[in-house]
Specification:
The protein is α/β, with parallel strands linked by helices and 231 residues long. The protein is 45% helix and 11% strand. A 5-stranded parallel sheet has the order 2-3-4-1-5, with helices on both faces.
Length: 231
């Protein structure tokens, strides 16, 4: 089975990305649409959302659910695209679901667009499906290949909205549990008040807290958070 999971945060203890551990917040309808996409009639789904909105989590969750149901799935992040990555796409015939993440990095590159165009055609002919994601809405993607634009734009389009502060708190608490990190309420509240509000930054601080607490054998406290934020 071809399946390539990506851990969105650089820690080996990061848990599997699944639908049941995704904090949907205002995006529940979007999450439901993504989850049921394999059973939908549309051959392609475009997922848009700003950085740290959960696109990578959802694409990996979709791949894992396909695997759990006995189907084949393949995930590829295009953050660091290369010619080698293009060659990987040539062997995807017969896969039930292909997820291409971070397509912002290759849209406008004619070689990549042609490769995705051929992948889509092969998948569709064999009854497979394609999911691709980027930060911008679909109409803002600057395609060079008109045929690819028309084909990818013919399917479902889903856009993730911003999480509320209460949702970010849930994400932080879930992440702390996943890291086996005992984090008091005052630390969570301090992070949400004082750290940058971008979720990726908050999660990065939490990861640094885990490392600092482990290596220095310290409890997680507000003073420790202050030390990390000063860096």
């Amino acid at each position: 089975m071809l399946y390539s999971p990506q851990i969105p945060l650089p820690l080996g203890s990061t848990p599997e990305s699944r639908f049941d551990n995704f904090v949907a917040g205002c995006n529940q309808a979007q999450v439901d649409a993504i989850r049921h996409f394999p059973d939908d009639n549309a051959p392609v789904l475009y997922l848009a959302g700003e950085e740290s909105s959960g696109k990578t989590h959802l694409l990996n969750a979709l791949c894992r659910e396909e695997r759990d149901q006995g189907r084949t799935a393949f995930y590829l992040s295009l953050v660091q695209s290369s010619a080698a990555s293009i060659e990987v796409l040539e062997g995807l015939s017969g896969i039930d679901l292909v997820c291409l993440d971070d397509c912002d990095n290759v849209v406008g590159d004619l070689d990549w667009e042609e490769a995705i165009f051929h992948v889509f055609n092969r998948l569709r002919a064999a009854g497979g499906k394609l999911v691709f994601s980027a930060r911008a809405s679909f109409r803002k993607l600057d395609f060079k290949l008109p045929d690819l634009c028309s084909r990818l734009g013919s399917g479902l389009q889903v856009k993730l909205g911003r999480l509320e502060e209460s949702d970010k708190e849930q994400v932080l608490r879930w992440r702390a549990r996943a890291l086996d990190l005992d984090i008091p309420d005052e630390v969570i509240n301090y992070l949400l008040r004082r750290s940058r509000r971008h979720l990726a930054d908050l999660l990065n601080v939490l990861d640094q807290l885990q490392r600092a607490a482990f290596t220095a054998k310290r409890r997680v406290t507000v003073p420790l958070v202050r030390e990390i934020l000063k860096r």
